[in-house]
Amino acid sequence: KQWYQRRVRGIQAVCDIMSLLSSYSVGTSQLINSTVSYKDKEMSVASCVGELCQGLLSNKELTRRDKDMLCALLFLARQVYTTHEGLAIMCKFKLVSLANEVLSVSGDITPQPPATSQDSEEGGGEQQENCFEEVLVDNMLGFASTPKGLLLLHEGSMLEQCID
User: Fold this and answer.
1) Residues 137/109, Cβ–Cβ less than 8 Å
2) pTM of the model
3) CA torsion, ordered 23, 81, 25, 53, to nearest 10 deg
4) Residue 158's closest CA among 112, 105, 111, 113?
5) Which of 79, 80, 75, 71 is nearest to 133 (CA)?
């Protein structure tokens, strides 16, 4: 279990660095054009990120660590999604549709007030779940910055819920 936690923290750190790099056009280009070997096949780094996001979003029983990793990966995917080349790569993973499904299962998304120390002692799990949902909504709105992303969000009937 401890090796898994270290691995997740490592992946989150790499995602943070890659997100910083991809905030520049040269970094985004590297994510799209650089290749890695993943699951015995060569693919772009962006495709690898998309595949990891797709796998995590498809999992119905995510742990807290999985959700943290998913949020980091989605933020990175969202930055790749802002270019034409990145959009072409990420569309095949249907991340917006999968995120729609995750949010529709979890129900109404409403921002929660900050928890007090007493709240976190009593029911921290609910607050963490709300935080995950808010980050997921935020990333979906980031995907909606493109016409295709906006269309997918609207088709999934999550547009109003994300804006509220």
Assistant:
1) yes
2) 0.74
3) 60
4) 105
5) 71
Element (H, E) at 155: helix 147-155
The token pair at 31 is 């994510």
- How far apart (Å, rounded) are the C-alpha atoms in residues 116 and 26? 42
The CA-based dihedral angle spanning residues 128, 68, 163, 98, taken in that order and rounded to the nearest 10 degrees: -120
- If residue 38 lies in a helix (H) or strand (E), which one and from where to where? strand 35-38
Mean pLDDT (the chain, rounded): 80
Greatest mean pLDDT among 14-18, 61-65, 142-146 = 14-18
Residues 6+ apart with CB under 8 A from 160: none
At 111-140, the pLDDT tens digits run: 444 444 444 444 456 666 678 888 888 887
For the beta carbon of residue 154, count every other beta carbon within 10 angstroms. 12
Find, among 3, 1, 15, 9, the residue nearest to 79 by Cα: 15
